[in-house]
Write a structure and sequence with these properties.
6 strands, SH3 type barrels, 1 helix, mainly beta, four-stranded antiparallel beta sheet
Amino acid sequence: MDIYETQAIPLNKLKQTGYTFFKRKPDAKVVYVVNHYDRGSKSYSCSDAEDMNREVFIKANKPVFIGFEY
């Protein structure tokens, strides 16, 4: 029985849930953390938790997945 239940939420609601880490797909291996919000592109700068040099910019309303075992 799995005690963790993966949930999809918009990226801009991540801080309100209390979670720090998220995945872009429910079955992804890469885990991300939010760096900052970029007003120019209206997106969040997110880095791979294992490799801080890998950075992606994700729109605020893009669904991300939380509630997994890390």
